[in-house]
Amino acid sequence: MLRVGERVRHEIAALLARNEIIDPLLETVTVTVPEVRMTPDLKLANVYVMPLGGENAEDVVSALNAHAKFIRGRITPALDLKYAPQFRFFVDKTFDEYGRIDAILRSERVQRDLASDDDGED
C-alpha cells in the first residue's frame, strides 16, 4: 500500500506540475501532494494536497475532485495496476498540526517545566 501510494503521489504531482488540467483556478496555483493513502484493496486513493501558501485550499480540493475522472484516466496507465484506483482529494491538515504542536512546545508553561527539569538534574 505504501509503495503504491508513493507512486500515485509522484504521478499526481507530475501531472499537476505539467498543468494538464484545464481549470482557471488550478492553472494559477502551485499544489503540493504531501501524502497519498491507499485502501488495502488499492481501489481508492485518498490524496492529501495543499496549495502553496495554503490559500483557497478548499476551492483547490473541490476543483481537483471535479477533475478526478480526468486525473484517473491520465495517471492509471503509468501505474500498471490490476484496478484503476479512484481518487478523492482532501486538504492536508498536517501543516496546521505541526504549527499547533510547535506553539505548545514554545509556550511559557512548557518552557518553565523544561527549565525546572534542567535545574533538578544538577
UniProtKB/TrEMBL annotation:
UniProt KW keywords: Cytoplasm, Ribosome biogenesis
SUPFAM superfamilies for the chain: Ribosome-binding factor A, RbfA
Family per similarity comment: Belongs to the RbfA family.
A matching Pfam family: RBFA
Function of the molecule: One of several proteins that assist in the late maturation steps of the functional core of the 30S ribosomal subunit. Associates with free 30S ribosomal subunits (but not with 30S subunits that are part of 70S ribosomes or polysomes). Required for efficient processing of 16S rRNA. May interact with the 5'-terminal helix region of 16S rRNA.
Subcellular location(s) of the protein: Cytoplasm
GO cellular component: cytosol
Name used for this protein in its record: Ribosome-binding factor A
GO biological process, one term: maturation of SSU-rRNA
Quaternary structure and interacting proteins, as annotated: Monomer. Binds 30S ribosomal subunits, but not 50S ribosomal subunits or 70S ribosomes.
One annotated GO molecular function: ribosomal small subunit binding
Location (main, coarse): cytoplasm
